[in-house]
Amino acid sequence: MAMLHGFGSQLLLGALTTLQLAGCALVVGVLFGAAGCWLQLSGLRALRALGYAYAAVVRGVPDLLIVFAVFFGGSLTLAHLSGRYVEVDSFVAGIIALAVSFGAYVAEIARGALRSVERTQREAARSLGLTRMQALRTVIWPQAMRAALAPFGNQSIVLLKQTSIVSIVGCDELMRKAAEATGATREPFTMYLAAASIYLALTAGATVLLEWAEHRASRPYAR
User: Fold this and answer.
1) Is residue 2 over pLDDT 70?
2) 188-217 vs 8-40: helix crossing angle, rounded to 10
3) I need a surface site. Which of 60, 93, 121, 198 has the fewest CB within 10 A?
């Protein structure tokens, strides 16, 4: 810590903000993803088109542009509504932007997982007298969850690293703190190496949790 010239605590605060960003974006992104998946599987052509358009546009645009669109676009919208300049909070803008991006991938993961369940599973559930909702809850959904767990976990780790782009709009997450420490000490290698070490520790922890969840999911009858 002595090598960090007193900026170690600032980097840790930045890491905490990074975790908060990732956690909030994950929760909101799951809601976006669920809505996107529902749209894509809708029986209405217009809704399906909307769901596919959401996924295609977001996945085809750099995440940095989404951050800019939410931050600056949100500020312009609030300015028009209030009649004065209002700057969107960078933390809130980061959550929304990351959630929009994450949700597009979650929608694709969920849709693929649901379609991976064979039609015979649905037919067998209905032949046992289960309603559509009962079949979805007890037969289809558990299998889809297991199929989606690995790609969802991998995308969550990507989300954790993507929080670094929010530093561009002034959010005090880990990369922002590392940049500030670099400006004060003129030691970019040391500060960014410290930030990289923290990111590595965070992603390693997330990987362990993912492996534990996959292990639990592979034991459907374990109590």
Assistant:
1) no
2) 40
3) 60
